[in-house]
From TrEMBL:
Keyword presence, Lyase: no
Similarity comment: family membership: Belongs to the AfsR/DnrI/RedD regulatory family.
Record protein name field: Putative AfsR family transcriptional regulator
Gene Ontology biological-process annotations: phosphorelay signal transduction system; regulation of DNA-templated transcription
Residue range(s) of DNA binding per entry: 1-97
Keyword Kinase: no
Gene3D superfamilies per record: Tetratricopeptide repeat domain, Winged helix-like DNA-binding domain superfamily/Winged helix DNA-binding domain
Length: 251
């Protein structure tokens, strides 16, 4: 059994894939997944679902969503599996599953290994574990879930961890002089994070180190124009330093 939240939320059992159809039931499942093996208070569920505008029937309705989720588990995954996962534990509920059945935990464990390798100067290990961590992602966290303010905090935190892991991978790969391999990854990253000047700087440097000096200068001019037109800013020190390194290099 696997619970996937790095992308559209899914519960996978062998080849069976279950995703709640009702948006608020999907929200409840997402909240339980994000706090796996911890008590999710009923108040937290209500806060996620309605924020400051909870109806008078909020408690009963939230309990109904839990009931619906349990019922769906039984129907979709079988009675034995369906009844044992969501445990009522006052003052709330617990999704009780092994940590390694969640893609979130797998990502975090792999990213932790990458950070540990960085701490001891192991660039090869950093690149390997960081890449493995990033491959766990299927898309934006909870991509198909209408997130309230509680879930949005979790999503933002995961996105920050992803960016940190991407930077680890890029630094390690640059140290290992894997410039050609990095170019495709960096082009994708600067499209995803168009105002991350550090990533643009790494793309400029990687292109230059791979012998593509003209492409490197073009990449610099492209981000320089973007920053000027969209934000009214000059390139950062990292970007200017990258450009100077390209200009100093031999054609």
């Amino acid at each position: 059994m696997e619970f996937k939240a790095l992308g559209p939320i899914e519960v996978v059992n062998d080849r069976l894939v279950y995703t709640p159809s009702a948006p608020k039931v999907k929200q409840v499942l997402a909240l339980l997944v994000m706090r796996t093996n911890q008590i999710v208070r009923l108040e937290s569920i209500i806060d996620e679902l309605w924020g400051d505008h909870a109806p008078r029937t909020a408690v009963t309705t939230a309990q109904t969503y839990i009931y619906q989720l349990r019922k769906d588990f039984v129907v979709e995954l079988g009675e034995e599996l369906g009844e044992r996962f969501i445990v009522t534990t006052p003052p709330g509920y617990v999704l009780s599953v092994p940590e390694d059945s969640l893609d979130i935990r797998v990502f975090e464990q792999l990213a932790d290994r990458a950070h540990a390798c960085t701490a001891v100067g192991d660039a090869e290990g950093t690149a390997r574990w960081a890449k493995a961590a990033l491959q766990v992602w299927r898309g934006a966290p909870l991509a198909d879930v209408p997130c309230g303010r509680v879930l949005q905090d979790y999503v933002s935190n995961l996105e920050e961890k992803r960016v940190s892991t991407q930077e680890l991978y890029v630094r390690a790969a640059m140290n290992l002089e894997r410039y050609r391999d990095l170019i495709t990854d960096l082009r994708s990253l600067v499209m995803e994070y168009p105002f991350n000047e550090w990533l643009h700087a790494q793309l400029v440097l990687a292109l230059n180190k791979a012998g593509r000096r003209v492409d490197a200068l073009h990449a610099y001019q492209k981000v320089r124009t973007l920053l000027r037109d969209e934000l009214g800013l000059d390139p950062s020190h990292d970007l200017q330093h990258a450009q100077q390194e390209v200009l100093r290099s031999s054609p």
